[in-house]
TrEMBL record:
NCBIfam families: hemE (TIGR01464). It comes from Streptomyces blastmyceticus. Residues 39-48, 156-172 form the Uroporphyrinogen decarboxylase (URO-D) domain. It is an enzyme of class 4 (lyase). Catalyzes the decarboxylation of four acetate groups of uroporphyrinogen-III to yield coproporphyrinogen-III. Its main location: cytoplasm. The record marks 93 as: Transition state stabilizer. Substrate binds at residues 44-48, 93, 168, 223, 337. The gene is hemE. Keywords: Cytoplasm, Decarboxylase, Lyase, Porphyrin biosynthesis. This is Uroporphyrinogen decarboxylase.
Amino acid sequence: MSERREPSQPASQQQTGRTAAYDSAFLRACRREPVPHTPVWFMRQAGRSLPEYRKLREGIPMLDSCMRPDLVTEITLQPVRRHNVDAAIFFSDIVVPLKAIGIDLDIKPGVGPVVAEPIRTRADLERLRPLDASDVPYVTEAIGMLTAELGATPLIGFAGAPFTLASYLVEGGPSRNHEHTKALMYGDPELWADLLDRLADITASFLKVQIAAGASAVQLFDSWVGALAPADYRRSVMPSSTKVFDAVAGLGVPRIHFGVGTGELLGLMGEAGADVVGVDWRIPMDEAARRVGPGKALQGNLDPAVLFAGREAVEAKTREVLTAARDLEGHVFNLGHGVLPTTDPEALTRLVEFVHEQTAR
Ligand code: 1CP
């Protein structure tokens, strides 16, 4: 199951190391090459907004579902079938690698990840041992099944960035102000650096497992890093995220870097080693491009709440995004954050069609 190349692939692809998805609009946009249309996918497309997802998950706890390759494969494919998006995102969660190395945590419905014993002291660090492929056999198996099913549609692997993972581990669960996390970061910089360094190794290993199994791009989610000022980001967080990006450089897959409320950090998030920088809805794409600078593609950035407005409003706001993104070197259309759970799935399907029509060349 862990063979990266399917035997059915033409020999020419095996020789060049190119997967069936290599020439997809999504991977071309990530590489800043010309595209037949602007590619579209949605963060959190696999999951809560789809009735077929909720039906499949009935009675199965979130983390259990992440460990079942049959379910992971089906849930990952559901939005691809329904919406005709240009990429699939692997169904899992950022805390799966932490669970896999033995951290006692659960994903509570309506809450999110909850950690039984938060990590706050040097002794606690010992619980963060390195991860290897044998800790997550269900990931390798699911990705093998998925790439066979997906053919030319790329699969995006992902992981949580060290800061965002640390925020759950140190707080013990979701947090608005990240006060324990920041207390550790400002109060004990050495312990903080060691914590983030361990998390960087775990994250890098988790991404490498996904790439070895066949993922054709990876996204590092630093969802909550927008809570930091640029100087603190540069000093206390960027080295660990750079370590992750460096570890997966040269593996032939684009690296995407995303966080919420990161307008002031976009330049640094690109510098950390991303090929594609994700942008939330708070700044226009042309301004984001100025902040990121040349040599990177951008991903974004329709406000997910716009999908609750009528069709005309969605189209008008989408046109605004596409106009602001017109001169980018590479543009992957996405929402500025994940699909909200009560979003009408039909609105997502129409949005994919609209972006494809508007950008056909
Ligand atoms: O019971 C349920 O159905 C749980 C809901 C759920 C789902 C469907 C959670 C709990 N995680 C997921 C899947 C998930 N998580 C995916 C699947 C692929 C996709 O379609 O995108 C991905 C990429 C994630 C990543 C994730 N988990 C992030 C980063 C992305 C983001 O939205 O910023 C974060 C921060 C998490 C933590 C998490 N897991 C679940 C929840 C509700 C949360 C957020 C909790 C909080 O507010 O802190």
